[in-house]
Backbone:
């Protein structure tokens, strides 16, 4: 239930801008609108962009080095070393007890896979590497899928369609549209392949903190969720399962982080951080 308290506050005597008018129009119609602190300043946007450039460079470095026979712990070491050497901080490290600097999720692991020395990449594996970087206090977040050697046509299709879901979701995000437009577009595409769109996890606002409003669900109905306003920064990160959308937490994970598809069929995820502008989305991280 939406609070009756206004989220979009105007200070006494403050002139009303065109942006104010657009946001208040939807708030008065009962729609959920952002709070003002979710609208990033030019200085904050520049800081997030710089963090995004480093985050992208980290994933580029992983792409150069990832190969069959390496452990996911080695991926973690690459991410940690490269990030620190370039003045950043790996955001996942020690975040709510997460023990490593990056998430590495193989095959049926949907997300939050913990790098381990015993997890060795094998021919045919698909692996998601999810990296979040802090630079000068600003956060940027992205993940990529990697196919190790040659895999099955079914896994190749899953990886491709999941990336298409990200792109289609981004195309659906328009200034003064709604978060639900993103999820609806993603679900429509995934449904064509009878894939499951994970519902227990979502994209999120980012930039000044690791996780901010809004929650960006990857399924749902148009014109629902929070109003998308220029200056907002958020991730879109669809997690698409080859089978059911349902997931569970790995009981053998002592940290309680690793999420696995319920039927243990493969899962894929792609993620970018985006800035909403007056003309649509700008990609901050790849």
Residues:
């Amino acid at each position: 239930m939406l609070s009756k308290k206004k989220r979009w506050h105007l200070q006494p005597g403050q002139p009303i801008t065109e942006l104010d008018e657009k946001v208040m129009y939807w708030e008065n119609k009962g729609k959920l609108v952002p709070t003002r602190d979710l609208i990033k300043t030019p200085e904050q946007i520049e800081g997030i962009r710089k963090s995004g450039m480093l985050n992208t460079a980290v994933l580029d470095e992983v792409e150069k080095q990832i190969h069959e026979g390496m452990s996911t712990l080695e991926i973690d070491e690459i991410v940690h070393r490269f990030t620190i050497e370039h003045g950043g901080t790996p955001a996942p490290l020690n975040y709510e007890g997460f023990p490593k600097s990056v998430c590495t999720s193989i095959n049926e692991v949907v997300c939050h896979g913990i790098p381990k020395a015993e997890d060795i990449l094998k021919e045919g594996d698909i692996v998601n590497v999810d990296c979040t970087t802090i630079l000068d206090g600003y956060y940027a977040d992205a993940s990529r899928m990697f196919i190790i050697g040659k895999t099955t046509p079914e896994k190749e299709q899953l990886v491709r369609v999941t990336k298409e879901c990200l792109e289609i979701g981004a195309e659906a995000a328009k200034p003064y549209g709604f978060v639900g437009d993103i999820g609806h577009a993603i679900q429509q595409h995934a449904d064509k392949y009878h894939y499951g769109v994970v519902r227990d996890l979502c994209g999120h606002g980012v930039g000044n903190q690791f996780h901010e409003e809004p929650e960006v669900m990857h399924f749902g109905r148009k014109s629902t969720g929070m109003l998308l306003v220029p200056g907002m920064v958020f991730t879109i990160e669809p997690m698409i399962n080859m089978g059911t959308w349902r997931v569970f937490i790995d009981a053998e994970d002592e940290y309680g982080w690793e999420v696995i598809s319920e039927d243990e069929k493969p899962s894929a995820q792609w993620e970018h951080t985006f800035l909403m502008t007056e003309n649509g989305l700008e990609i901050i991280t790849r």
